[in-house]
């Protein structure tokens, strides 16, 4: 049997069969005097098993190891591990579908609808702050889902959002920042406002490892006017000190 005939019987391409030879999954058969490979029934059976195992989700390296173990012990372990992995994927898919169902049930889908339920709950509790600073604040909150340790940040913020004094202070800080929109970077209001911002940041929310040169920090500062950005630079330096 030539390689083309073998490919037709097993539903594999001749390229795949040659690749299995190269990877050590299928032994090289005897060759005819003319140099062509001569395949037999044993090769058909081996390829059928390789195909079944790869369709189950085993990698070629795992298939090779399984075929090398004549007692099937390694194969049992591999299949059990694969089943565990599929169970985790299945649970993750169910959770994603449940989240999608919740979103699709909403009458009004907004840009921030796709954020995590935890962050969505925090945004729902935050007071509405108008103006560019308020809009920027909510945009930054939606980026928390992509940040490492976002769960801790959300939990820390949630512990403060229901405090009336904290809410009033945050709204006052937003108004003062708005007043600096057209100010110069040496405006005398910057230093005292930076000190107030630093004092208002919950403990543990900003650590000494915060890098003002990080791309995220740079993007935030570039979204502000020069004077507003200077407020946050000074505030972060004070928190890190």
TrEMBL record:
Lineage, top ranks: Bacteria, Bacillati, Actinomycetota, Actinomycetes, Pseudonocardiales
UniProt xrefs under PROSITE patterns: HTH_MERR_2
Protein name: MerR family transcriptional regulator
Pfam family, one: MerR_1
Keywords: DNA-binding
Source organism of the structure: Kibdelosporangium phytohabitans
Chain ranges of the HTH merR-type domain: 1-69
UniProt key word DNA-binding: yes
MF terms in GO: DNA binding; DNA-binding transcription factor activity
